[in-house]
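Quick log. Single chain, no ligands specified.
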Amino acid sequence: MATPTPVSEKNTKKLAIVLVRGVAKGREVVKGTLRLLRLDRKNHCVVVADTPSVRGMLQQAKDYLTWGEITLEIERELVEKRGQLYQGRLTDSKGKYTYRRTFDYNGKKYKPYFSLQPPQKGFGRKGIKVAFRAGGALGYRGEKMNDLLKRML
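-> predicted structure:
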C-alpha cells in the first residue's frame, strides 16, 4: 500500500464560512462549534483550510452557516477591504505562552475574522431558513461563495 503524502497548507483549498443566522436560542453544541470557528456575530466570515475536522464542524452547524471554496483573489480582497490589524499581545508577559488569535498575511497580523455587510440583493430568494440547493441561503455553495463575498464587501 502506498503511504499518503502529507498535504501542505498552501496546497489545500480554502473555505470561506459566513454566519447567516444568529444563534440566540440555539443548542449549546452548535454555539460551541461556532465559538471554535470564531463566528460570534451575523455576517462575520472566517477563512479556514478545508480539512475533515472543519467539514465535520460545518455539518454540525449547517443550519446557521453558508460556506464554499474561495479563490486567492477574493481572499486578498477580503484582507485588503475588511481585514483588521491585530493590536493585542502575541505572548504572555514572561514569553512562555503564545496566543493564536491572529493570522498572517504578507507579514502582518490580522484578526481571524472579517466583519462583512449584508449582501446586496439578499442571500437567496427563499430566505435564510432554507438550504442553498433549494433557493435559500444555508449550506454548501461551492464556487458561488465568491459571488456572495463580492456582494458582501
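Residues 1-9 have pLDDT under 50 and may be disordered.
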